[in-house]
Amino acid sequence: AAKTALATAPPGLKAVIVDDGSPPGTWEGVPLPFEIRLARRKENGGFAKAVNTGLREIPEGDVVLLNSDVVLSPGWYERVRETAARDWVGLVGIRLLYPDGKIQHGGGTLNAFGWFGHAGEGGPPWAIFTAVHGVPFVTGAFWYWPRRTIEEFGGLDEGYEMGVEDIDYCWTLNRAGKVVMYDGRACGIHECGATRRRANQRVGYESPENIQRFADKHILNAKPKGGVPTPAMRSAPLPG
Fold first, then answer.
1. Which of 189, 3, 184 is nearest to 79 (CA)?
2. pTM greater than the 0.85 cutoff
3. Best CA proximity match to 59, nearest among 39, 87, 77, 31
């Protein structure tokens, strides 16, 4: 994923691969180009801790958060950077497709039960999913993370059990008046869960503990900043 991201972006970008406690010898004999460096954790800590480890390795500039099972298409960098340039934007996510071409993530949405889902998941890649607009959240499989957001809000909440960390962060931004943007002009292929399946790792996305933590922070006890009761939804026309 890191190599394809660098290959489809302008020269000068650097990449950090976070190894979240892989067994000894995993990287033995694996050559890494000079623009990719490795940050190794001694033990597996889950998504939030791995992401925060990577953030500490990148002290300046904007950050692209990318899952190891995402392959980006050419042109993504220019598009998402353009969308992120607006000062009211907190994060930018993109259109993600399953390997068979169906939609995996067409932007975050709320389902009929009041919980979170991916717009268009499992359906055909209709043109509507190439739009640019505000959403409740974008999946942490890909974020364009402006430095101004990192400086103001920091990293992910490490109290979640492998899931909901990305939704939690996006919700925090929305409550603070920042807008989470979906840029469907940029695209990637996401073999969703491939890394977890190889590692036989459990996902706590809808665990009672995760749901309770989210409710405690954003529903039961938290008051919206500036009187914003729901995620900010600001329309954004296509740049240009």
1. 184
2. yes
3. 39
